[in-house]
Specification:
The complex is a heterodimer of chains A (about 150) and B (about 400). With about 150 residues, chain A is mainly beta. Chain A contains one helix and eight strands, in the order αββββββββ. In chain A, the strands form two sheets. A five-stranded antiparallel beta sheet of chain A has the order 6-5-4-7-8. The two termini of chain A are about 30 Å apart. In chain B, a hairpin with a 1-residue loop joins strand 5 and strand 6. Chain B has about 400 residues and is of the alpha/beta class. The longest helix of chain B has 16 residues. Classes of the chains: A mainly beta (about 150), B alpha/beta (about 400). Strand 4 of chain A pairs antiparallel with strand 5 of chain B, so a sheet runs across the interface.
């Protein structure tokens, strides 16, 4: 692995659970889905056993656009474990346009160019034949041109 | 808390914070139990209630409080283990007070000990391994980096305010012989501002150094203390707790914390307001957590934390002394026992045992806890306790 290569770092593979399996099944097809509570009309992430809004188990999985903005971000100077030699990289909380947040990396962008409210879009990382992980990259096609 | 039976602290004890001590957790616990019994002037047989905190070193033990009580030779009528992270110690004191008020027991030992710099056996499951580890999130500094970046997008965060907190608390730690030896050196504003980034915008000197340590208090009712001729004991005046603040919101304002709710409840119970507080011992895993607490507890408005820090004297001789023992930032974080450091220091001041760092007007103390950082929100556990010196 070359210095600064956040795209090819040997990441710890997530192990799907009985709750999160639909997320990873969809990710294999490169579809980003989140739990949706039909009563509250709201998404939630990470996957929970019940709706965080009602406590009921009538959650649905709904596909989202994969477009959103950087809500918060931090530049990791030296990462833990396998990330130790990956150089500086960005971990961000991305707020999807559908009103749900996910923590992931901003890739294909110099850390110094990442900014709060920057428009981003989905970029799948193929970690293994079973696991695709949703990362994000600048959205150069965004209407407000903030890519 | 100040209901039918007022609950008082008979005595406190604290072990020296040490990096990689090589000691076991029961060993550290035994040290502070023997010390607190001696300071309280009571026999072990008088302890009939016990509350401890989960330990990072002993995290795999599913019977922790009973096993630790066994190690310490305690026969009990009430026993509990609190797992609210850094809010555990203050939470354990609150639960012990309830057990005393309910008459389940009469004298409670609240004790926390941990040795994660010798051995750390924590094993988070849940969202951490699936949703944080694969993206290389650097633990608490990474999470507080996210929080700080969002704060800075909404409000002004003056680096000089963070530096002032660091320098003030280090000054206090230099007067605390129980503080971590590695941190026993003076610190300047320039040292803080020049310290390296760990998870930008979090600098090395924004963070705690994890170490081994232990602390303990003995609680009983005012009636029982008075009957024993112990009239000068500080009491619990108010408490509030909030877990998973604003959880039913997929896009919360992460600069708002549970302390907003927990603080209001504690102040109401104590019949006090922020301007009545004579010293503040905030939980300080990161310096920005202190800024947020000034705002959320009502010392100033959201966004005004930097200005508040720079326009008040927070030293032990100042108008609002904070973390006069150095806090975890400058005395070390003894794992999940770290939440006891600030609590014990508050008692030390309230009983006039602060030595060269004694606060002149130590009428009362505000002590807080912060526990665990959830996925993409603010911290999970917030608690607030107000202690009052004997009149």
């Amino acid at each position: 692995m070359s210095e600064g290569d956040i795209l090819s770092v040997g990441r710890p593979l997530p192990v799907p659970t009985s709750v999160s399996k639909p997320f990873w099944d969809a990710a294999r097809r490169k579809e980003l889905v989140f739990q949706f509570c039909p009563e509250a009309g709201l998404f939630q992430h990470f996957p929970r056993p019940v709706s965080a809004y009602t406590g009921k188990r009538n959650l649905e999985w709904r596909r989202v656009s994969g477009r959103g903005r950087v809500f918060a971000f931090t530049i990791t100077e030296r990462g833990p474990g396998p990330f130790r030699d990956a150089g500086r990289y960005v971990v961000a909380t991305i707020e999807l346009d559908e009103g749900v947040r996910i923590i992931s990396n901003i890739v294909n962008c110099e850390p110094a160019r990442v900014a709060i409210d920057q428009r981003v879009r989905l970029h799948w990382l193929e970690l293994s034949p079973q696991i695709n992980y949703p990362a994000f990259e600048p959205d150069d096609d965004a209407p407000d041109g903030e890519g | 808390m100040s209901g039918r039976h007022e609950v008082v602290a008979l005595a406190f004890a604290e072990a020296r914070n040490v990096l990689a001590s090589g000691r076991s957790v029961p060993d550290l616990a035994g040290e502070v139990m023997a010390s607190v019994l001696q300071r309280a002037g009571i026999e072990k047989s008088e302890i009939d209630g016990f509350a401890t905190c989960l330990s990072l070193t002993e995290a795999g033990n599913p019977f922790w409080s009973a096993v630790l009580a066994d190690e310490l030779g305690l026969e009990l009528d009430w026993c509990d283990c609190v797992d609210l992270g850094g809010a555990s110690f203050v939470g354990a004191v609150a639960r012990a007070a309830l057990a005393l008020q309910a008459g389940l027991c009469s004298t409670v030992l609240v004790l926390a000990a941990d040795a994660p710099s010798t051995r750390n056996r924590q094993d988070f499951g849940s969202y951490r391994t699936e949703w944080q580890d694969p993206v290389g999130l650097l633990g608490p500094p990474g999470l507080f980096g996210l929080l700080t970046s969002r704060y800075r997008a909404s409000y002004e965060l003056d680096p000089l305010a963070l530096a002032t907190l660091a320098v003030t608390q280090r000054g206090h730690a230099l007067m605390n012989g129980l503080g971590l030896q590695q941190l026993q050196k003076p610190l300047t504003v320039e040292d803080y501002l020049g310290s390296r980034m760990v998870s930008d915008p979090i600098r090395l000197l924004d963070c705690v150094m994890v170490c081994d340590g232990a602390n303990a208090v003995i609680l009983t009712t005012r009636e029982r203390a008075d009957a024993a001729g112990r009239h000068g004991c500080p009491s619990i005046a108010g408490y509030g707790e909030r877990i998973n603040h604003d959880i039913a919101n997929p896009v919360p304002d992460i600069t708002e914390t549970g302390h907003k709710v927990a603080g209001a409840r504690a102040f109401a119970k104590a019949g006090m307001k922020p301007s009545d507080i004579s010293m503040f011992h905030p939980y300080d895993d990161f310096l920005i957590a202190v800024i947020l607490q000034f705002e959320q507890l009502g010392f100033c408005r959201p966004g005004e934390g930097s200005r508040f820090v720079l326009s008040n004297d927070l030293s032990h001789r100042g108008n609002l002394p904070i973390n006069t023992g150095g806090g975890q930032i400058s005395a070390g974080q003894a794992g999940l026992a770290g939440g006891g450091h600030n609590f014990v220091e508050a008692l030390r001041q309230l009983t006039g045992e602060g030595g060269e760092r004694q606060v002149a007007d130590a009428r009362n103390a505000l002590v807080t806890g912060i526990g665990t950082i959830p996925y993409a929100r603010n911290w999970s556990c917030s608690n607030v306790m107000i202690l009052r010196a004997a009149s």
